[in-house]
Amino acid sequence: MRLTVDKRPSASRATGSPTKAAPSQFPFVVEVPATATVADLKLAIAKQAGAPQPDRQRLTAGEKKAVLEAGDALDKYGLKDGDTVFVKDLGPQLGWQTVFYIEYAGPLVFHYLVYNFQNLFYGQTFEHSALQQRAYLLIMGHFIKRELETAFVHRFSHGTMPLFNVFKNSGHYHLLSGLNLAYWIYSPATAQGTALAAQLGCPLLLSAFTGIFLFAELSNLSTHITLRNLRPPGSRVRRIPRGYGFGLVSFPNYTFEIIAWAAVAGMTRSVAALLFLVVASAQMYLWATKKHAQYKREFPDYPRARKAIFPFIA
């Protein structure tokens, strides 16, 4: 099957005809088997001079500009001999596993520094209260868990992310759940001996919120393992997830994540913790609803009673 590869036409560019004589110029022609996948097509395009490497390519086709996913066969998109596929260079890429390492390392560094180098951030030293000690252990544990999941649990459906996006994504973690959260939770206002520390440091409350947090973290880990087991190593297979948590929502990993951070916000009564909870919940809701709709489009037998992220609600 011969396909024309071109950049998306613009009003200022004259229409050209495909040619194999100057493959460094768009448009050009590539030839792939009729049974080829999108990944095969990306490899064929990358062999042409001046074309981006597979991880940098975003391929679309048709009037609706349908994005061609790397794990799909070309016949899924109805492509036939002589059709045109448009390519966009996404720019420098970074592996998703590396992205996750960077995102979760930021909060670990900031919480460690703020907690242990008080004079640098507050201009004084003081004894941490039971509340601060507990919050530090839980938050550090959360992000250490995330790093370990990245190394040993997650199987990524996409190989890379545009390098520029790493800064945007990392800012969310490094600033909101890192520096901002740490600065206010470990501040002298809730240090040992203060009235607020005595009020919030009730052993019963600390135990209750810790229990909720640990329940949510272990449940979150369980759903990540379920998702991992859906996808054989080295593949991008997609299946309907089932099991613990998935009976009510499509993304219980997000649901349990929200519960964990709600426990931190309830335990610390910190505006910074509440801010992170709201921002993170809103972002996860957007991710979940988009992926939930994709599940329903992809699987005709997808459970209709399931909600995206909040049981019985949305």
Automatic annotation (TrEMBL):
<feature type="region of interest" description="Disordered">
    <location>
        <begin position="1"/>
        <end position="22"/>
    </location>
</feature>
<feature type="transmembrane region" description="Helical">
    <location>
        <begin position="270"/>
        <end position="288"/>
    </location>
</feature>
<dbReference type="InterPro" id="IPR039357">
    <property type="entry name" value="SRD5A/TECR"/>
</dbReference>
<keyword id="KW-0521">NADP</keyword>
<keyword id="KW-0812">Transmembrane</keyword>
<keyword id="KW-1133">Transmembrane helix</keyword>
<dbReference type="GO" id="GO:0005789">
    <property type="term" value="C:endoplasmic reticulum membrane"/>
</dbReference>
<feature type="domain" description="Ubiquitin-like">
    <location>
        <begin position="1"/>
        <end position="87"/>
    </location>
</feature>
<dbReference type="InterPro" id="IPR029071">
    <property type="entry name" value="Ubiquitin-like_domsf"/>
</dbReference>
<feature type="transmembrane region" description="Helical">
    <location>
        <begin position="204"/>
        <end position="223"/>
    </location>
</feature>
<comment type="similarity">
    <text>Belongs to the steroid 5-alpha reductase family.</text>
</comment>
<keyword id="KW-0560">Oxidoreductase</keyword>
<keyword id="KW-0472">Membrane</keyword>
<keyword id="KW-0444">Lipid biosynthesis</keyword>
<dbReference type="GO" id="GO:0042761">
    <property type="term" value="P:very long-chain fatty acid biosynthetic process"/>
</dbReference>
<dbReference type="GO" id="GO:0102758">
    <property type="term" value="F:very-long-chain enoyl-CoA reductase activity"/>
</dbReference>
<dbReference type="InterPro" id="IPR001104">
    <property type="entry name" value="3-oxo-5_a-steroid_4-DH_C"/>
</dbReference>
<keyword id="KW-0443">Lipid metabolism</keyword>
<protein>
    <submittedName>
        <fullName>3-oxo-5a-steroid 4- dehydrogenase</fullName>
        <ecNumber>1.3.1.93</ecNumber>
    </submittedName>
</protein>
<dbReference type="Pfam" id="PF02544">
    <property type="entry name" value="Steroid_dh"/>
</dbReference>
<feature type="transmembrane region" description="Helical">
    <location>
        <begin position="244"/>
        <end position="264"/>
    </location>
</feature>
<dbReference type="InterPro" id="IPR000626">
    <property type="entry name" value="Ubiquitin-like_dom"/>
</dbReference>
